[in-house]
Amino acid sequence: MPDQMTDPALLTAPARTRRRRWPWLAGALAIGLGVLGGAAWWHGDAAPPLAPAAAEAPPSLTVTLAPVQRRVLAREVIGDGSVVAWQELVIGAETGGLRVLSVPVEEGEPVRQGQLLVALDDALPAAQMAQSRAALAEAEAALSIARLDLRRASELSRTGNVAREILDQRQSAVQQAEARLLAAQARQGEAEVRMAQTRILAPFDGVVARRSVLPGAVVQPGQEMARLIRDNRLELDARVPELDLAALRPGQAVRVLHGDREIAASIRAVAPVVAGETRLGIVHVALPAGSGLRPGMFARAEIRPETAPALVVPQEAVVFRAGQAVAFVLPEGGDRVMRREVATGARQEGLVAVTSGLAEGERVVASGAGFLSDGDRVRVTAPR
């Protein structure tokens, strides 16, 4: 008979029995816990576990504020161009075929009105003048004789000693003599003009910008003799963008820069036409006497138009969201910002003009606005 202690069937039987009991016990335990939990929920004896108290959210960003102020904010208008003469007079010859005798002026020399610029050979005009004077004297003598004959004929006609035909002839002779005298006077005037044309004089005060002839040259009608800068007045023809022209007026102050030199000037006129190719307009800036500039020099003009006060904020207070300029306002006593859509204008020295969206005295976020959204909590710190 086999030993019961060593029978494999008997040894493995309890182990299989134990393995069949564990699933049953686990299921019973789960059912029991479910019943207990349901009872506790039904009677309200057990409360759900308490979540830890949510800590208050910290401010999203530390920012600085700036007030919305009203002040004059003029946008500086920049233009550049060449220095030119206010009026450059081209002095030409009115006669031709005459030789230049002398040019008693030099380039850059100031001249007075009526001063001699160029002297032409006057031998031929002088001879023509002498001839015209002789012809004039002859015409005057002929008229005198004709008038005397007419007077005698008139006296004889009263007594009937002279025929009517003779009297008519004397009257006609006087008229012809008077006409010849007028012609002689005209020729005399022409000769005087020709004589005057041999002396080319300065029509105004100014400075000789160019001397175009030298002694010995034979001039032709209309040939340039010299150029004058009238009254020695210079100006800067500054080219300015078309959008800036509307703010410019004659008399506004201008700062002209040429190298290290700074010159106080003013606007004389604004050209009424804008170049279609460049969209630039010309602003004529009158330069003061003794500016040291010369025609042809290149200079820069800085103009600050006079404008009315406007609401301004720091430039960093205005940020863009989806292409729209916005600013963040912090109400007095509050800690959450409000987003405002704004319209901006001129900019100068770190400030920007706000034409709509803000009111004077409101506080806007100056630094840190780029990281904010509407309703964010902020902590305010003093600007450094």
UniProtKB/TrEMBL annotation:
Subcellular location: Cell envelope
Keywords assigned by UniProt, alphabetized: Coiled coil, Membrane, Transmembrane, Transmembrane helix, Transport
Recorded coiled-coil stretches: 136-194
InterPro entries: Beta-barrel_RND_2, MdtA-like_BSH, MdtA-like_C, MdtA-like_HH, RND_pump_MFP
Keyword Translocase: no
Domain named CusB-like beta-barrel: residues: 236-306
Domain Multidrug resistance protein MdtA-like alpha-helical hairpin intervals: 129-197
Entry-linked Gene3D superfamilies: 2.40.30.170, 2.40.420.20, 2.40.50.100, Helix hairpin bin
KW Translocase (keyword) present: no
Residues spanning the membrane: 21-42
The organism's place on the tree of life at top rank: Bacteria
Residues in the signal sequence: none
Residue span(s) of domain Multidrug resistance protein MdtA-like barrel-sandwich hybrid: 100-226
Main location: other
Multidrug resistance protein MdtA-like C-terminal permuted SH3 domain sequence ranges: 310-369
Similarity field: Belongs to the membrane fusion protein (MFP) (TC 8.A.1) family.
Name of the protein in question: Efflux RND transporter periplasmic adaptor subunit
Protein's organism: Teichococcus vastitatis
